[in-house]
Specification:
two-stranded antiparallel sheet
Length: 341
């Protein structure tokens, strides 16, 4: 993470956004602790509560995207009190999206450190998602009382925080029983992945769109840059998750490239038993894996260059350094050399 840390130290906007993001994380945790309290008449062995906020939850690595989103609010001149409100809403989106992913994919990522009896992996996510909705109410009520937003804007935010996720939810639903065929790679990237991942990089604009800061030509360019950054990250994910997505029959750009451009290799691959799929399966297809990773890197680099031109004011080489650092963040460090070519 040295590349990221060095950039944080030299970028005024990113540094301030990171400090604000830490404040948002702490405040959401505080509200969750006030709400997640089991009634006293429930026996001790069945109580649910919230554990302390782990120090790791406040690190740069855990808050890369959220900090980037907050930095965009700075570029849009969102007032500080609304900026923090939108940052807290983004933290709630993390709770909702992570909870859904954990339920769908049997993952174990934690945003709210809930404490429940037993293992309780499923119920933990249910409680986290319900708690997120209650925290949303508290945030909107407080913001309305303080004059940060109007009552009508609060109502719109309540609705749009759900509506903004429905496209991604619909895409996930279409994969729930597994895909039966592989669409062309460009359809995967610009239709399926735009809904699957790209839409999540538009979520930060839910607040500014309601209050007006997101309805400008500059906001449109920033929105497009975040979308490209998200799609670039997803391409790296597709390389790393080649074996998982093949086994689970999920859409994957690299698998579609193999299906349409190297059909013989794809046929052999799909004929293997799941036990025969290596964790780093992409290493068996170095040419197409490198080209996919190179495309993802290029999209992320250009997205950061756009953000820099729009006011993030990074040093000349920083967009490339940030994009290359994502290989480490996304557990694909052995492919990072494509950024040097």
């Amino acid at each position: 993470m040295a590349n990221w840390l060095a950039i944080w130290e030299t970028s005024r906007v990113l540094g301030q956004a990171f400090r604000e993001q830490r404040e948002c994380v702490r405040d959401v945790h505080r509200l969750a602790a006030e709400l997640v309290r089991t009634p006293e008449d429930v026996p001790v062995g069945f109580r649910v509560g919230l554990g302390p906020l782990p120090e790791a939850a406040l690190t740069v690595r855990k808050n890369l995207f959220s900090t980037l989103f907050l930095s965009v609010y700075h570029l849009l001149d969102v007032p500080p009190e609304r900026r923090l409100l939108f940052g807290k809403l983004n933290q709630l989106f993390r709770i909702w999206v992570t909870g859904a992913d954990n339920l769908l994919d049997a993952e174990d990522k934690v945003v709210l450190p809930l404490q429940l009896p037993g293992e309780a992996r499923t119920m933990r996510e249910v409680v986290a998602i319900m708690a997120g909705d209650r925290i949303l109410n508290e945030l909107l009520w407080d913001a309305t009382a303080a004059g940060t937003i109007t009552q009508e804007q609060a109502r719109q935010l309540s609705a749009r925080t759900l509506q903004s996720l429905l496209g991604s939810a619909g895409q996930e639903a279409s994969e729930e029983r597994g895909v039966t065929d592989r669409p062309p790679p460009e359809e995967v990237l610009f239709t399926i992945h735009r809904l699957k991942t790209g839409m999540l990089f538009h979520i930060p604009f839910v607040g500014p769109d309601v209050t007006g800061e997101g309805l400008t030509p500059r906001a449109a360019e920033l929105r497009a840059a975040l979308l490209d950054f998200g799609l670039g990250c997803q391409l790296l994910d597709d390389v790393r998750d080649l074996a998982i997505d093949l086994r689970d029959r999920r859409h994957n750009y690299l698998l579609s490239v193999l299906r349409w451009q190297v059909p013989k290799a794809y046929a052999e691959l799909t004929g293997r038993a799941p036990a025969g799929l290596a964790d780093r399966l992409y290493r068996e297809f170095p040419a197409v894996a490198q080209e996919t990773a190179r495309r993802g890197y290029g999209m992320m680099r250009e997205a950061m260059a756009t953000l820099s031109r729009q006011g993030l004011a990074l040093r000349q080489d920083d967009p490339a350094r940030i994009a290359k650092a994502m290989f480490q963040v996304l557990d694909l460090e052995d492919m990072a050399e494509v950024a040097d070519g």
